[in-house]
Amino acid sequence: MVTAARLLPLILFLTAVAVGCSAWEMNIRLPTERLAYGGGEAVVAPIIHALRPLLGSGRQLAARAGVACDSWRLGVEAHNVIDWRTVPAECEGYIGHYMLGEHYRRDFAVVVDEAVAYAETLKLAGNGKEIWVFDIDETSLSNLPYYAKHGFGATPYNATSFREYVAEGSAPALPETRRLYHRLLELGVKPVFLTGRTEDQRTITVTNLHRQGFSGWEKLLLKPAVHATGELQGSAVEYKSGERQKLQDAGFIIVGNIGDQWSDILGAPEGARTFKLPDPLYYIG
Ligand SMILES: *[C@@H]1O[C@H](CO)[C@@H](O)[C@H](O)[C@H]1NC(C)=O
């Protein structure tokens, strides 16, 4: 009896631990099962167990020849890895899977959902002066059809072939950005495109944007054509912040600013709030 009486607290303790553990396991599993962002498509999320952290970590895809491609991509998106010229050769397959699979679009939708939610909270003056700055490439239009044929950023940038691709005017819209664009028009915020594309590409850019369901913008700001040849190439941060300053000087209020490059959103005046879209394909400083 004495032994049983002594054991009882131990049994109760162990039961409590077991119950506690399973509750805890539930807690760590639930977030992974709620990962399904974007379009209501079913997303198969790996079940993560605290004691087996390697399971579902994407290790096989990510680690090649000493480069962890998912860590590299995170470094890029957080702007810790800067001034890089090409995707590490070992990561071409990883970036290809990321871009063509659901992951890129899901990451993209998270940003746009935040932007839409923010826009809907704005107390707008409705005076026609409130604008939202949009970048074009990898923000409003996708050049993935080009990059899929050119090593997903792992082969050096070729200005000639890229300009040939742009000249086709066939770049598809990024539908999430188009959704933000139309919501802003409904709210009375005017879209302004600010792009590193050059004036000689204006006509085809307008055509491409119209084909893909973008219209009714306030301004489409392109770089002077002299930049097309690579001469007088200042930094993108200087160029874009300078253009935003001119907008502000003209009385516009930049309520939001969205782009895939940090150079789209760095440099005063940035805009009341900025949104960084994913882009592991190339870096523009
Ligand atoms: C760049 O693209 C052009 C046009 O497609 C091609 O003629 C040229 O060989 C390419 N250059 C390199 C270095 O691949």
UniProtKB/TrEMBL annotation:
Enumerate the InterPro entries for this protein: Acid_phosphat_B-like, Acid_phosphatase_pln, HAD-like_sf, HAD_sf
Q: Which GO terms describe its molecular function?
A: acid phosphatase activity
Keyword Signal present in the record's keywords: the answer is: yes
The question of whether Iron-sulfur is a record keyword is answered with no
Assigned keywords, A-Z: Signal
Q: Which domain of life is it from?
A: Eukaryota
Give the transmembrane ranges: none
The record's Gene3D superfamilies line, in alphabetical order, gives: HAD superfamily/HAD-like
Q: Which Pfam families match?
A: Acid_phosphat_B
- First and last residue of the signal peptide: 1-23
Entry's NCBIfam families? plant-AP
Record-given protein name: Acid phosphatase
